[in-house]
């Protein structure tokens, strides 16, 4: 594996205004909306960003490059993000920082046990909170020197990215309603709807998750979610 970033022949030093300057951040996240937020956060902070939307794509990335920091969603379409965290924690050389992200705060202990350096609950929209969490994982020489003003501004991802996520889940539901599919849909939509301030969809996703957790059939909850998704896809046509 090539442990160098091809863009980093001369790594710029971080500054108080752009404290993540010189870093390459790999975001392993299947939500377009969440990734758009991460792109804006990295842009405002000075970091470069790469994206992998599943475990397979992330592992393919690591056969070629080693980023400075990796942000890993714990609920991915092809497996558990904690498995990738454990792999990266045991790899030599190890990346500087591994940050687990999830809309479920109860997964923090699982992530830390797998070897993550930190955990952030989604939605992640605050520039200052994002920067502080990343900087805390880095060695002192990768941090900006001197005092720094914390930016409490929140980023606002493009609403079209939310529509892309609706189309993704519609495709997932069209492929069949297996147990794995329903669990994935409930997890994905719970965090996504919270990030996008869509309480109706969030409550529907939570109702589906509760039925699944109790081992009950969830035909009505699944039908409700399918209808909500179609109504949101109709909004994209209007846009």
Automatic annotation (TrEMBL):
**Organism's domain of life?**
Bacteria
SUPFAM superfamilies under this entry? CheY-like (SSF52172)
Q: Which PROSITE patterns match?
A: RESPONSE_REGULATORY
CDD domains in UniProt: REC
Q: Does the keyword DNA damage apply?
A: no
Which keywords describe this protein according to UniProt?
A: Phosphoprotein
One protein family per Pfam? Response_reg
- Positions modified as 4-aspartylphosphate? 73
Query: What InterPro entries does the record point to?
Result: Bact_response_regulator, CheY-like_superfamily, Sig_transdc_resp-reg_receiver
Q: Give the Response regulatory domain ranges.
A: 24-137
Q: Which GO terms describe its biological process?
A: phosphorelay signal transduction system
Q: What is this protein called?
A: Response regulator
Q: What organism is listed for this UniProt entry?
A: Sulfitobacter geojensis
For this protein's source organism, the top of the classification is: Bacteria, Pseudomonadati, Pseudomonadota, Alphaproteobacteria, Rhodobacterales
């Amino acid at each position: 594996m090539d442990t160098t970033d091809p863009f980093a022949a001369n790594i710029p030093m971080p500054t108080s205004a752009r404290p993540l300057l010189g870093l390459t951040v790999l975001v392993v996240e299947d939500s377009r909306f969440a990734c758009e937020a991460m792109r804006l956060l990295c842009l405002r902070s000075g970091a470069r960003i790469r994206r992998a939307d599943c475990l397979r794509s992330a592992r393919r990335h690591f056969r070629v490059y080693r980023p400075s920091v990796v942000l890993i969603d714990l609920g991915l379409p092809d497996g558990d993000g904690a498995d990738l965290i454990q792999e990266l924690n045991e790899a030599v050389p190890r990346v500087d920082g591994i940050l687990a992200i999830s809309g479920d705060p109860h997964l923090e202990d699982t992530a830390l046990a797998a070897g993550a350096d930190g955990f952030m609950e989604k939605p992640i929209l605050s520039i200052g909170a994002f920067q502080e969490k990343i900087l805390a994982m880095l060695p002192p020489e990768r941090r900006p020197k001197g005092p720094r003003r914390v930016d409490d501004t929140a980023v606002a991802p493009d609403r079209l990215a939310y529509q892309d996520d609706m189309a993704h889940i519609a495709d997932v539901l069209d492929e069949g309603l297996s147990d794995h599919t329903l669990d994935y849909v409930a997890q994905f939509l719970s965090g996504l709807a919270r990030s996008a301030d869509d309480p109706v969809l969030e409550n529907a996703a939570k109702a589906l998750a509760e039925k699944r957790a109790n081992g009950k059939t969830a035909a009505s909850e699944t039908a409700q979610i399918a209808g909500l998704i179609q109504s949101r896809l109709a909004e994209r046509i209007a846009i």
